Amino acid sequence: MDFREFMLALSHGSDEVEEPIEPCIEHGAKHFEKRKEQADLEHGAVMKVVHKDGETGGKKPEEGDLVKFHYTVRKGGEETVVETSRGGDPAVFVLGKACRMPRGLELAIHSMTKGESSSFTIKPSYGFKHPDCSWRLEDPQLEEDALDFDIELVDYTNGVSVQVVNDTKLDEMVLKETVKDGTGWENPRPPYKAVVHVRAQESESGATFFQTKEEEPLTFQFGENAVPEMLEEAIGLMFKGEVAKIYSRKPLESSRLIGAAAGQSGGTQIQLYEVSLLDVIQVRDVIGTKEIMKMRVKDGKGEFPIDCPIMDCHVKIHCIGRLKESGEVFWDTRKDDKGNKGPFCFETGLNVVPEGLEMCIKLMVPEETSIIQCASKYAYDGFKDDGDPIGKEVPPNCDVEWEVTLLEFEKPKNMANLTTSEVVAEGESRKGKANALFKAAKYKMARTKYEQLVKELKSVIETEVTEEEAAEGDAVVRLVVSCTLNLAACAQKLGEHTVALKHCDEVLQLNPDNAKALYRRGQTYIHLSEWDLARKDYQKMGNVNGEMKLEAETNLTRIDRLEKEALKQQKMQFQGFFNR
After folding, report:
1. Per-residue 3-state assignment (H helix, E strand, C coil) for 421-435
2. Alpha helices in 440-496 (DSSP H)
3. Which one of 17, 284, 383, 567 has the lowest number of neighbouring Cβ atoms within 10 Å?
4. CA-to-CA distance for 383 and 445, rounded, in angstroms?
5. Across-strand partners of 273?
6. What letters, b where the CB count within 10 A reaches 16 and e where it falls short, cover 88-104?
7. Cβ contact 237:187 at 8 Å
8. Does 476 have pLDDT greater than 50?
9. What is the pLDDT at residue 465?
10. Are 257 and 231 in contact (CB under 8 A)?
């Protein structure tokens, strides 16, 4: 429907009027701007005279490329120099991006090859008066005139290797040029550590004011203000093994590890930092409070997270445990009291090692070595009651440090690849481990195991099975129901009664006469003081399951007593209120 049809439909009072199709204004504006620019160029907005040819058959720079060029600006038809880069280093810009030069100058450089020298006369509307231009002359009045530009294109770098670090304004623009590509997928970021070689110069041809020694690279932690802010931001865009040049129009400030240049850059000078990123040391603030910090000191084999023991499984590690303050060793799997050496093997998710240690092991890849620093509450405080012999060596309120190497781990079975009978056997085994945690009052850990098991079992139920397996399918459903009710029990123990209610309702939707679900929901209603709803559940429980009739009657009597006590307490509270 075009616009006239739309208005006609409106005038006829149609109840269903289609929205007119609006033109894409942005696309249309760009197309118009491009056509207008082409027309302006045909009418002499930018005029060119070649003085020296560049590389024969050489490519010309494109939008997004980093260009280096010498320039001299003169008022049109005059010899007086307005501004020049001669006598210093070439100007550095990114064509069409970041803080931009005059549009006419961009178009001029687009037409050049490396090494070429040419003169251009550019009208004001395509010079410093162009709306996209960030470059300003010292004398603003000169920007109103047509200007002559003598340009020598020194060099340019393909835009694929160029990144803009900061473009808030021209005087503070920071650009990064990749000289050698790195490897991997991870950039350094807080709280990671970076190992770098740095050479800092006042300008590209200027004096070096900072340089690391070959045998002593610089190691610093991101987010700690160890190096200038913009330099850290640029390094944060690099990959391990990458070599890059960082160009900064504004002299970078002094920092803890790298001081500022003795002489402040001025005029056309641009500070240059040549950086080699030798290593990225992965540091994780595991829970975001700096109470569990994991630092990788030796890379392993595999990729995070697909090759990590994130799911509960059997793992084999070597570990050296130290008291953080004194450095005293309290655990060394490579040497026990009898001089025996051997790795420590255990199953995660069973409360065998402290919470902080297990969290970090689950984030490691095979053969990785990491240093783990852990606050006492996530280490051995409260863990000694489990009879752990290692924890007995650690004083109360003592932060610890573990040096851990993950030797190997056994990936848990994928239930999608098992037969129905194998699924039931695996499920019963995992449920038994979760039950053991529940009996040990480790309700959160038990809940995690039940939740994962229910998730995997449900995915199996949703897949098609053979006729032979169909007979055993009910056993999988029964297992899901049992684990869901155990999740309700965990929620009750943790005081999460609305969550317990949700789990009970989920089972009763499948089977409204499930006596155990009615029992658990009745318990939950009692905690929520929903006396009538609790009575209904216990009455129904006694009716559907004769063996639980006595239990139902006991709880109905208990409900009557608790309701009377609650009403009595409520009455006393109101009396106290009115007697004030």
Report:
1. HHHHHHHHHHHHHHH
2. 443-461, 467-493
3. 567
4. 14
5. 200, 246
6. bbbbbbbbbbbbbbbbb
7. yes
8. yes
9. 46
10. no
